[in-house]
Amino acid sequence: MKQARKERSKLILVLGGAASGKSQAALDLAGQVGPRAFVATGQALDREMAARIERHRATRSAYWETVEVPVDIASWVIRNSHGYQSIVIDCITLWLSNLRGLRLSDLAVSEATVDLIHAIRTTRARVVIVSNELGLGLVPATKAVRAFRDLAGRVNQQVAAEADEVYLTISGLPLRLK
Fold first, then answer.
1. Top-level class of domain 10-176
2. What is the DSSP letter of 83?
3. Which end of the chain is more exposed for a tag (fewer CB within 10 A), N or C?
4. Catalytic residue among 56, 124, 149, 154
């Protein structure tokens, strides 16, 4: 007798620089099948960020349910992912900034990333994660910013290693790496 194969998520990572088109690429890669959730990690801590969040929200169709989850994405995925065909998490870099604001160590951030990947793998949804590629620019002038860039690079590597597909978006063009 043939055993039924347990379905698992499809994990896609979309990397890119600022204003590279990575969020739109993620929405496109998530597909048109609903229901769909957009998990926003950004927080409107000032007017400029509030305006940026609103501009991003306006680019999504009404078919996307937006939820704001600045820190505990893994718990949200475990509790809510069963109701969605596609989930976009935008973005890991802001999530890292939020975790750093809670003074989490690099080890705790790495463990939170493992927890997030595990949570994603327990769902059947297609999950697209957006993250900034910070390692292509100038070396930051301060130790703290260099440390954050390095942490983001390590987390991106963790997610990329586990992802089924990885894209790098440049000038609105997603290039498949994996």
1. alpha beta
2. G
3. N
4. 56
